[in-house]
């Protein structure tokens, strides 16, 4: 499983990354976490509002910092 | 009919202006602290406690409701809507959507690239970028609370007009050559946004309240503190000599002071409130608030990455001119508004 965090590196992106790491740990998933901070790469996902969470190339959350439960739900689905 | 008017008047006073809270705080200051309200310290303390409570209560409620509404208008959707319009209507819609699309300055680069590469005229994007920080729905209701509805509505209308005219001018000047070339070269995919459930939206709204309150509380406290000092300690003659009607440059001065300031609009409201009670013109106060919110260094630095200096300077010049015009116009017609 590949989990991508899209965002230029602002506060919200760092928060989302921390949440994603925590969720992966707590769920005991075997996932690689990748940060995507290049604008062209971010927008290739059809996203303007950061931060965004992409799981296996599917945009799950965009535009806000979610709760830990929301991140877990996105990883399980 | 008069019954309905009286009812709404009561609702307005109780919920927006919270006159009962002011009375309650007055009692507290007088009876418990032993400070007479017509004295300097008493007036300052009453202003500080009342304004702090009122602003935080209104702010939290408003952010919650507005964020819920905003969750229906992500920028990706706004971009699709705007793509269907052209001419001045696209600018009008850009200005309107600017008020309800959730967006922070760290998203302004992808937003600019996304709008531009979708073929939207840069003027439409600038209409959006001008109205977005300027006409914040929460601040409008706070304006109604502190002053009155006439001023709040007038503020929205002139803010939107500034955004539409500013964007239209930028389009008319054909400044596309001053957009960094990589913006046009970036392709943005069309993708459906993940569907949000009602629970997602509520949690989004709640988090927005926590985020914004955490971010703005120092500004609000500082603003209320400055307001309280002005309210109780600075003589009216002093303030009105600098910022009042007798100084023809009051609006210019307020704008020059406001532009480099990067405070939240919620922090500027209590200062505005205190200044108006000291006889400063409403236009001068609004020019100050608009200068603080519409132009901020962080957002200009962000924009610098996607546009070249001539376009950025044009944007800056148009907004500053607009604020000055609005300030003097409001001062000239303040009799109709207060």
List keywords for this structure.
heterodimer; A: about 80 residues; alpha+beta; Glutaredoxin; 3 helices; globular; B: about 350 residues; mainly alpha; about 75% helix
What does this protein structure show overall?
The complex is a heterodimer of chains A (about 80) and B (about 350). By secondary structure, chain A is α+β, with helices and mostly antiparallel strands. Chain A has helices spanning about 10-25, 40-45, 70-75, and strands at about 1-5, 30-35, 50-55, 60. Chain A has one domain (about 1-75): Glutaredoxin (3-Layer(aba) Sandwich). Chain A is globular and about 30 Å long. The relative contact order of chain A is 0.28. Chain B is mainly alpha-helical and about 350 residues long. In chain B, helix 1 packs across helix 8 (about 135-145) and helix 13 runs parallel beside helix 15. Chain B has one domain (about 1-185, about 200-335). Chain B contains 18 helices and no strands. Chain B has helices spanning about 1-15, 20-30, 40-70, 75-85, 90-100, 110-115, 120-135, 135-145, 150-170, 180-185, 200-235, 235-245, 250-260, 265-275, 280-295, 295-305, 310-330, 335. Chain B is globular.
Strand content of chain B: under 5%
How many strand units of chain B? 0
Number of strands of chain A: 4
Distance between the termini of chain B: 23 Å
CATH class category name of chain A: Alpha Beta
Helix content of chain B: over 70%
Relative strand content of chain A: 15-25%
String of helices and strands of chain A: EHEHEEH
Please state the average pLDDT score of chain B.
84
Structural class designation of chain B = mainly alpha
């Amino acid at each position: 499983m590949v989990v991508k965090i899209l965002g230029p590196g602002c506060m919200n992106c760092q928060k989302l990354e921390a949440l994603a790491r925590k969720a992966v740990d707590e769920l005991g998933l075997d996932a690689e976490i990748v940060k995507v901070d290049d604008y062209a790469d971010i927008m290739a996902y059809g996203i303007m509002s950061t931060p965004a969470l992409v799981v296996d190339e599917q945009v799950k959350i965009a535009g806000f910092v979610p709760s830990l439960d929301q991140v877990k739900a996105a990883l399980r689905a | 009919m008069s019954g309905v008017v009286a009812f709404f008047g009561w609702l307005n006073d109780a919920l927006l202006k919270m006159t009962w809270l002011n009375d309650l705080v007055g009692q507290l200051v007088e009876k418990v602290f032993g400070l007479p309200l017509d004295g300097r310290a008493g007036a300052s303390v009453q202003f500080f406690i009342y304004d702090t409570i009122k602003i935080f209560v209104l702010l939290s409620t408003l952010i919650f409701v507005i964020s819920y509404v905003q969750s229906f208008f992500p920028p990706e959707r706004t971009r699709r809507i705007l793509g269907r319009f052209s001419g001045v209507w696209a600018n009008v819609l850009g200005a309107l959507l600017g008020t309800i699309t959730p967006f922070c300055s760290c998203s302004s680069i992808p937003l600019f690239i996304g709008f531009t590469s979708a073929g939207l005229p840069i003027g439409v994007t600038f209409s959006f970028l001008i109205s977005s920080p300027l006409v914040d729905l929460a601040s409008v209701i706070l304006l109604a609370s502190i002053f009155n509805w006439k001023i709040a509505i007038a503020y929205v209308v002139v803010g939107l007009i500034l955004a539409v005219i500013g964007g239209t001018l930028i389009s008319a000047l054909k400044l596309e050559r001053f957009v960094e070339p990589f913006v046009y070269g970036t392709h943005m995919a069309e993708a459906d946004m993940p569907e949000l459930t009602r629970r997602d939206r509520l949690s989004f709204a709640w988090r927005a309240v926590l985020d914004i309150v955490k971010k703005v509380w120092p500004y609000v406290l500082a603003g209320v503190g400055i307001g309280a000092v002005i309210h109780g300690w600075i003589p009216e003659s002093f303030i009105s000599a600098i910022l009042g009607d007798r100084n023809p440059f009051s609006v210019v001065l307020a704008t020059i002071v406001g532009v480099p300031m990067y405070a939240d609009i919620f922090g500027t409201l209590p200062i505005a409130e205190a200044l108006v009670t000291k006889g400063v013109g409403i236009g001068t106060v609004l020019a100050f608030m608009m200068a603080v919110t519409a132009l901020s260094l962080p957002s200009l630095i962000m924009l610098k990455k996607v546009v070249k200096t001539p376009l950025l300077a044009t944007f800056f010049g148009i907004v500053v001119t607009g604020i000055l015009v609005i300030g003097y116009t409001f001062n000239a017609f303040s009799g109709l508004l207060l």
